[in-house]
Fold:
Amino acid sequence: MSVYKHSYRAYSGRVTPLWSRVLVLARYGLAEAWSSKITIALFTLSLIPFLVFLFGIYLANYPIARALIARGGPAGALEVGPAFFLKVLQSQCWIALVLTAWIAPRLITFDLADNSLPILLSHPISRFGYVFGKFIALFASLSVVTWIPGLLLFIYQSYTSPAPWVGKNLHIAVGILVGALIWTALVSLLGLALSSWVKWRVVATGIIFAAVFVPAGVGGIISAILRTKWGLLLNLPVMMTELWQRLLGAPDELSNISLPTTAIVAVLALSCLIFVAMLNARIRAREVVRG
Amino acid sequence: MGVIDLDGLTVRLGGRTVLDGLIGNLQGQAIGLLGPNGAGKSTLINTLLGFHSPAQGTARVFGLDAHRDRAQIRQRIGYMPENDSFIGNMSGVRFVRYMAELSGLPPSEALERAHEALFYVGLGEVRYRKVESYSLGMKQLVKLAQALAHGPSLLILDEPTNGLDPMARLRMIQVIKEIRQEGSIRLLISSHLLRDIDETCDEVLILKNGRIAALSNIEHERRSNRNFLELETIGATDQFSNSIRNLGAECASFPGGRIKLVMPDNIAVRDLYVIAAEQGVQIRRMNLRRDSLEDIFLRAMVDMPPPNHNPEAQPAHVSL
Structure:
């Protein structure tokens, strides 16, 4: 083909490897996600707690500030340790949920609303490749507000604190990374799965929040009525807080409702499987043209 | 090796046999896929694209197994679905580029080919507009552009003129003819409109109830009937008929001066006029009779043996 001749010519150039087509989906997904001003606004908002924590680390390692606070403030107010990073993880991960509720529907719902799956999947890309590409786009977007700022704060604390601090607290970095990765993967799958079942973006956003908080309420009711702690297995915020505490080695904030780690991991794994099954069912149903 | 080889292809969906033992070797440059609603056209296309796995038999595209080698096949296929299928909030050029990249073109080449493809189908001036703002005809054309951009070996067009106004239809037919004449792309065109297939294809596969009702080379059919003539004459009709027979033509005369003949290749129509002039016969009417695609289609529909009355064997109604 030629623009000025308006005639067709066959393509005989280089072709990218099959595995890299997933990255095409991821790249276009990222572009779609970040083309929205609201995404930029949410990301900017996510920087506020990060800057507050950064300032906290600065103060904690600034002798004059420490001396002033030690004189008038509560003991341990400027201590940077597992509890501090638990707060970092909690704040950043909940911002990530808000970001998921906005971005995930943009990645999937547009494709469903315009019935573009038959045309997308007629290219050399599988259902798994399609979902994986979208997952990468969402996961990468959420990483910017979860484990990346968490590790940056850890690195800054390592840089400003005396040398033994890093050696003693290396498990915190691992905890931040693992805890944030679990959350990011979970909410990415949750967001994609629920978005794939809803045609309207606004509704999908609402349903993502509802999927987190409605079961939490139901779990609370079950726990209250049956006088058991197992209802909390439906409470994602509580489960994740417990998991993060254990990963970071932070003091147990919810000691009266301790859930076994294996039960938490099993519920999270089961949730992920359900989300994958939902995605598979939905995309399989929409991959071919049906009259 | 044909473009598409069907070897006892049987596809079952939801417990129903939608395609029932299709056997055929499609070799045409442009293959038409015809059939009434529920005949299995969409299912056949989806099977060739690797979306459905055969219950029995195989389908091969360029010698590659349609299910096992679907990634390689999709690499070589451009597919234009019948229904609206696009990403509405993308500009035309971005959408086509995206699809070209998914087919394996590097980003810069994909962008270049996207511009070229859009100009080629006639959307050059609107390529920066969002696809959702396109008219129905433009949406059909942008689907064609994305199917062409990566330079496929086989272009599958599912109802390409669906919903188009006469001018847009003519434009689409013209583009399809140009692609066919260019020669590097084979075409598989599914349509309800016999005229579209007649104008663009040289081979036709007619499906009915999930089975092949006819597989014929349209060009060959046309050639075989090219010299079938019907005449209406006034004058010495019998003598005129005998003279034609003496030339070597098969000829039959009927009351009222009507003559039907099949002329061999060595006789031209002009020879008939010469004989008529010599014998004082007036040729009042001459009708060159040829089998149209409609004849082939109707014959296929009538000649097809009745479908198996076993309800389990009834094809599903998968309409296009």
Notes: The CA atoms of residues 105 and 221 of chain A lie 30 Å apart.
